[in-house]
Amino acid sequence: MQPARITLASAVAVTLSLLATACGGGAEGDQGDGPVVIEMWSWNEERTMQPIVDEFNATHDDIQIRLVKQVDITSAAANLRNAVASGEGVPCLVQSMTGVGEVPALTAEGLLIDVTDALQPYLDDGVFNEAALPGAQVGDRYYGVPTGFNPSFMMINRAVYDEYGIEVPTTWDELIAAGEELRPHGIYVMNLAGEDPSTLVNLVQQAGGSWYEIEGDAWRVDFLSEESRKAADIVQQLIDKNLVAHQTYLDRPALIEYFDSGQMVSLPTSTWQLTKYEIDFRNTIGDWQPMDLPQFSDAGEFVTPAHGGAEIVPDGCEHVEEAVEVSVWKATNEEAINATLDPETGAYAWPGAVPDPSPWVDSAVPERLFGERRGEARDVILRAVQAGRDPWVVGPNYTGVFAELQDQWANAVNGEITMVELLERMQDFTVEDLRSKNINVVGS
Amino acid sequence: MAVSVDQRKPPASRLPRWHRLVALKGASFTLPFFLGFVVFTVVPLVMALRESFYREQSSGLGFGEKTVEFVGLDNFIEGFGDGRFWASMLRVALFALVCIPAIQILSVLLALLLDSATQRVANVFRLPLLIPYMIPGIVATLIWVYVYSPDVGPLTPMFDVVGIDANFYSGEMIWVSIGNLMAWGAIGFNMLIIYASLRSVPREIYDSAYVDGASEWRVAWSIKIPMVRRTLVLTTVLAIIGTLQIFSDPVLFRSMTPETVTRDFTPIMAIYDWAFAQGEFNYAATLSIILALVVGSVSALFYRLTNKAPTS
Q1: In chain A, % of residues over pLDDT 90
Q2: Residues in B touching A440 (Cβ below 8 Å)
């Protein structure tokens, strides 16, 4: 009896102590006089991140980066929330989380720290592209280090356009007209994925609109502005006239096969996608032409949407200055950008934060995708960078608002509601949501 | 009997203690389970219940320090009035109303067929019917997601040949697609449980029925099914609990057809979205408690209504 009782008691003790250890976590203390270690979270592939880290660590003695790979953006967000809430194991840098939360929304959650003071010297030096700055701001303070934007332009399957004698569109209205001519031939002019309202968001930004605005100590929410209606009208026409395909971005093999089929002929795109298309396209390689993003017919100047992201410094980081130094180096230093070269594609990660990305443009343009028109790509991309504007202000509840927008967008793309109804619903949802959180809202 | 009480009674000091010891030893085998149950079920449940009485409140522009306020039943009032959450509940309830009986009927039919076949034939079919259940749920869903895909799957072209325009991802078909997947996985398991229960019924009862001139169908309907009633109740309750909490299947379908399967398509998806996409843990905890209440009530109600003793 006795030994059995002891065994059982030991088993219970071991189990309980294991549980206690598991709950305790493992924060690491400072390492005395050695270099400051900045823990950085990223979910990018290690092969693309490690060279940057190695380059930094090799050229800096006082600061070292420790890369911590996260599974994906969603789990990184959950881990970040847990780390900040517990105050233990908080990283000092996290890759831009625009996909799940913009800087103001993450700030409102209490996850981020004000880095304005640490960032100011670099802002004074003018190391950033002006259009890259708003994406890191909350009001006039910075809660992240700008990582910039990817230039927006379009690529069209020129072979199909030529086959049916259709002119290359320069405005959205012309694109709709081109779509009407292509439709009888069973061809869609563009693709609107059911899960991705970015087409609408980008159009609103291109029109110079924003859904949020700060007025004193309160938010003004305006989904029904002239700019939003203008953007909604373009999308509504594309849907009503049945000019667009609805391939999801999530099933990539099916998507690529479709894009490569010649049945869909215009793609708003950016630099990071080009090398992927080069690798994946089989039938239409060489048929595509890079061109300026279509404009609104009444546009006063050539504009591309350029809302940027920000690498974030979580609340609880003890080395804010060093974290900002690392992040600014990554975003703007020439050696850092050179270290982003992906040997597989031969392209650098797009240096979206720097005022002049021209030294890296050529690497972003693949050899065969544009065939004889490859030479046009450089100017198209640089024009898009110069024309980049960021009027976009994001409110503290944008994470939830964007999720709601995705659902309403799905309804609109399915034809269950109109785009104007979508805007009306979003207006109500956003105002109600802000009020439920006790946040000040003016107007309705 | 003339045996006196004193004679039957063992020496008072030894046997009860020995009994207690044996009982304790036996009970100690359940300790790992209860430890896990307390740590992973009771504690989270109590924590969730606590969270559901609080709410994070902002002020001004919403960027300042948040305060956590005790809001009493406010979250529950909001949860009970949350049209979209209840729409997801209704969606799944309607699905369960169709899907669970269909799966149960098919499982019973297969079990009856196996039971009436010879042992050798039954053995041949038993394993293949169980294979879908052996495949992990996520893997099964992935397989079917691609089988259904209108772009790369084989089904759409096959239906095309016979002139049917089948899109398994469309709003009208999505529940049929998910239901088929669930049936594929669940029928084998249910069938096996029911079959085992059928095998434990004394064969003499059937023999006497046959002697009385009962047909195979009559034996199945009047003897076999009533005899496995308790098993049917068990598999149905398990199915109700599982279906109301359906999550991984629609989540994977969402990755292929997000315009049909929205983020709050099922109650658990809505809760997951509130907690992990939007960071509103208090409200997510409240909805979890509400869902647990609904699942518990429905299961208990079903159990109470159906779990009578077999009539024969």
Answers
A1: 71
A2: 59-61
Q: Count Cα neighbours of A334 within 13 Å in the Cβ-side half-sphere.
A: 3
Tell me if A134 sits within 8 A of A424, measured CB to CB: no
Give the confidence band of A197 by pLDDT, cuts at 50, 70, 90: very high
Give pLDDT, residue B9.
52
Is A314 touching B (CB cutoff 8 A)? Answer: no
Q: Quick one: tokens of B143?
A: 């397989």
In angstroms, the separation between the Cα of residue A77 and the nearest Cα of chain B is 8
| pLDDT interval class at B8 (50, 70, 90) | low
Residue of chain B whose Cα is closest to the Cα of A141: B63
Q: Are A319 and A39 in contact (CB under 8 A)?
A: no
Read off φ and ψ for residue A64, nearest 5 degrees. Answer: -130, 145
| Whole-angstrom distance, CA of residue A55 vs CA of residue A435 | 48
Task: Tell me whether A439 touches chain B (CB under 8 Å).
Answer: yes
Domain boundaries of chain A, sorted by first residue? 8-150+307-359, 153-305+397-442
Measured between CB atoms, which of B21, B255, B264 is closest to A250?
B255
ipTM above 0.85, yes or no: no
- Tell me which residue of A405, A400, A436 sits closest to A421, measured CA to CA: A405
| B278 vs A44, residue with greater confidence | A44
Beta strands A153-157; A441-442: pairing state = unpaired
Give the nearest chain B residue to A249 (CA atoms).
B256
What's residue A252's pLDDT? 81
Per the prediction, chain A carries an average pLDDT of: 89
Domain A153-305+397-442 is classified in which CATH homologous superfamily? Periplasmic binding protein-like II (3.40.190.10)
Looking at the complex, does the CB of residue A261 fall below 8 Å from at least one CB of chain B?
no
Strand partners, B69: B55
SS3 B190: helix
B1 has pLDDT over 60: no
The yes/no answer on whether domain A8-150+307-359 falls in CATH 3.30.70.260 is: no
Supply the DSSP string of B127-152, one letter for each residue.
HHHHHHHHS-HHHHHHHHHHHH-TTT
